[in-house]
Design a protein that fits this description.
2 copies of one chain form a homodimer. By secondary structure, chain A is an alpha+beta fold. Chain A has one domain: NADH Oxidase (3-Layer(aba) Sandwich), CATH 3.40.109. Chain A is built from 9 helices and 5 strands, in the order ααβααβαααβαβαβ. A 4-stranded antiparallel beta sheet of chain A has the order 1-2-4-3, with helices on both faces.
Chain lengths: 209, 209
């Protein structure tokens, strides 16, 4: 199957097979895809909380309009934006670039100036809004990679972000919830994945210039 | 190569091979991936402008900090959010669902209520901000699918959105630019794709609960 066929197969599964869990290797593949997602200037201004714990997920479900996939999928993936993106954060990232590429820190002075200039030109609110968007890129990468692996992944925006932050202790970690996705395997009787996929036709969705 | 290896191969290419264009089939595959990207309630509250025209791209490049990939890649993909997401837009979508699935319009009354409720509970500003985020999911899907096909795709946020809207005549179409990506093939002497990819280590990026 091509990636296009895999994307046709994928579905916003609501009913997961509770007994079917991702293997350690499968989960690690999904996290590798998220890790490899591109982000603005490479900053990855988010963290990803991988929730397996049943009691935590029960609480999250109550803060997520009681959507069953929050507790029933193999794992719940919570994308959370950093809330303290400051000069120290930028410098720490430039340190990582220098270390990863084995280059002298000084050779990155121009890049550092660009990173810090970008960080310091935005208000906290703008930075968090921009981070949320970066998290959505990572979400898109996760959903596509999961489809390629034949793993179900259902994104969700219907949840109380403030309550999620509280349940997961994100405020103390300098994080705030962006978007979530349930990953695992569809139940045989999941209704949504049996429905015909609805998409706008190409001649409506695309404008060629 | 697994999708993980493909994602390691992908790069924010800055220098594209000008003479190497996507075939009609390759471009169509990328657009299929974008078309299949999931979105909130399935609404796909965006359009995608596929820019091949050289003169238009020259103008866009001037509005995009003179980034060479805007003119030199095979195509420039502009994701643009809808600006008039109203009840008519929602009803039109429910029409599409009924038609695609071959079901009576009346059986979708509950779903329609949910769609219209969602649309009417948000300000225009909130709706556009939410649409931008949906466009970023589609961007993530595009970048991953392109990597799977061995096609280069470089996302860009450094551009003047108001000027892009003007050059592309988006305001009259009820659209506003979200984010852009250049697609095509890296030049042999592209510097960025030869650099070691920098990503936060998994023990920093992920929190397991």
């Amino acid at each position: 199957m091509s990636i296009i066929d895999k994307l046709k197969w994928r579905s916003a599964v609501k009913k997961f097979e509770i007994s079917k869990k991702l293997s350690v290797a499968q989960l690690d593949d999904l996290l590798s895809a998220i890790q490899l997602a591109p982000s603005s200037l490479g900053l990855q201004t988010y963290k990803i909380i991988v929730v397996a714990d049943a009691a935590t997920r029960q609480k999250l479900r109550a803060a997520g309009y009681n959507q069953p996939q929050i507790t029933d999928a193999s794992h719940l993936i919570v994308f959370a934006s950093e809330t303290n993106i400051d000069s120290a954060y930028g410098k720490n990232y430039v340190d990582l670039v220098a270390k990863t590429r084995g280059v002298e820190r000084e050779t990155l002075a121009g890049f550092e100036q660009m990173v810090l200039g970008s960080i310091n030109s935005q208000t906290d609110e703008q930075k968090i809004a921009a981070s949320h968007k970066q998290a959505y890129i990572a979400l898109g990468v996760l959903l596509t990679a999961a489809a390629e692996f034949g793993i179900d992944a259902g994104p969700m925006e219907g949840f109380d972000a403030a309550k999620f932050d509280e349940i997961l202790g994100l405020k103390e970690k300098g994080l705030t919830t962006s978007v979530i996705a349930a990953v695992g395997f569809r139940a045989d009787d999941d209704v949504y994945s049996k429905m015909i996929k609805v998409r706008r036709p190409k001649n409506e969705l695309f404008i060629h210039i």
